[in-house]
Amino acid sequence: MKWSQFFNTSIGKKLLVGATGLFLCSFIIVHLAGNFQLLYNDGGKAFNTYAAFMGHNELIQLIAWGLKIAILLHAFIALQLTFRNRAARPVKYAVNPGNQTSSWFSRQMAIMGSILLIFIVIHLANFWWKFHFGEIPTQNYGGEEPLKDLYTVVQVAFKELWIVVLYVIGMIALSFHLIHGFKSAFQTFGLNHVKYNGLISFVGVWLFGILIPVGFAIIPVVIYFK
Amino acid sequence: MEHYNMNLTLKVWRQKNTDAQGKFETYPVSGISSEMSFLEMFDVLNEKLINEGKEPIAFDHDCREGICGACSMHINGRAHGPWAGTTTCQLHMRAFKDGDTVTVEPWRAGSFPVVKDLTVDRSAFDRIIEAGGYVSVNTGNAQDANSILVPKDQSDEAFAAAACIGCGACVAACKNSSAMLFVSAKVSQLALLPQGQPERKSRALNMIAQMDKEMFGSCTNTGACEAECPKEISLTNIARLNREFISAGFTYEK
């Protein structure tokens, strides 16, 4: 089987979805760590210095483009599989088992993923696009050059109720997506072993499904009420 | 368990043939014993329909011992009904109460076209087996018993996978109509044993290629198949199938 055939099989496609998914999981840890600097009351010094570093370091930029490709690939292949899966049952059941045979989260991957994709597009337009291509104020913290003041852009944005609500909805979708998604990727890679299943499930549900989305969501909420 | 009789309302899918438009018909059945199997209840109903000069309901059955895997009934939203680890013939009427309404549908999957009423064509499974679910054995004298050593744990695992009866409940239960649990059981039972080694890589690749060709959906690891499997085939088999397919895809030269 050639590589092109291999990655065109259902399992080959799922491998790409799982691999890009786990890559994106690793990214959100870094993203959240950086975001917590938004809660400092230092006039944005730490966050803006960090943003300038992330925006200019070549290695980080390379990874950043890799991330965007991963998001597109993940979404494109997953949607392709979803449409194929839907088509595999042309006549639907009159009665469905609901949660009796599978978890609710596991059946909502496409819906939550689609909400997330829309969220990511709005999120990139709000901050990433503005930071790189928009007109934003600068701040000088005593360095050689003034830094772009993304900190203030974020603080202003999160004073708008609809943006805060949107971000909380996005993080609920992230939570529901990863509660199943993280451990599902391991099963797709064939990693199912009694000695590790508990750990994988625990990390998937508690770290990626709950702690990280809650961490992301509290930042706009805190800024809104500040 | 105490014996009781019940009256039920059955909503059954009626479809003349593969191309015809099907619809639900409602049938009242009375005096059903709690000791009857679900199929015997259908026998009672069919006898009544025949006596009334009506077309009996077509449903597949063979052994009625829970091992043929023919009875493709989706009962109240559950493959083979509400009990775990049972086929339809092993589902007894004590699973229901007097006055219940029971909806019976055939397996729903594009790969399992309805032949008539509750009978579906599962030959897609046969074609997957033909693609690689076998071992090639040269003829000749039978070998001495135990000349090939198999670790006990491994033979137990292979045996558990070999319990698959190919009934298609996994496909029926899966929201994606995926056949992964079936294919994983068939690949596992041979991958775990020495006799399965010569064709191990080509088997995994060919059976998955055929599975895709038959237009089954892909697995999203919901676990519904495992919950509904009458032989309680484990999801660990799907992980093994993934490993078999990945390692074959990365190393097989053809």
TrEMBL record, chain A:
GO terms for cellular component: membrane. Keywords: Membrane, Transmembrane, Transmembrane helix. The keyword Transmembrane applies. The chain crosses the membrane at residues 15-39, 59-79, 109-129, 161-179, 199-225. InterPro entries: Cytochrome_b-558, SQR/QFR_C/D. This is Succinate dehydrogenase. It comes from Chitinophaga oryziterrae.
Automatic annotation (TrEMBL), chain B:
GO terms for biological process: aerobic respiration; respiratory electron transport chain. PROSITE patterns: 2FE2S_FER_1, 4FE4S_FER_2. Residues 155-185 form the 4Fe-4S ferredoxin-type domain. Its cofactor is [3Fe-4S] cluster; [2Fe-2S] cluster. It comes from the Bacteria. GO terms for molecular function: 2 iron, 2 sulfur cluster binding; electron transfer activity. InterPro entries: 2Fe-2S_ferredoxin-like_sf (IPR036010), 2Fe2S_fd_BS (IPR006058), 4Fe4S_Fe-S-bd (IPR017896), Beta-grasp_dom_sf (IPR012675), Helical_ferredxn (IPR009051), SDH/FRD_Iron-Sulfur (IPR050573), Succ_DH/fum_Rdtase_N (IPR025192). It holds the Pfam family Fer2_3. Belongs to the succinate dehydrogenase/fumarate reductase iron-sulfur protein family. This is Succinate dehydrogenase/fumarate reductase iron-sulfur subunit. It comes from Chitinophaga oryziterrae.
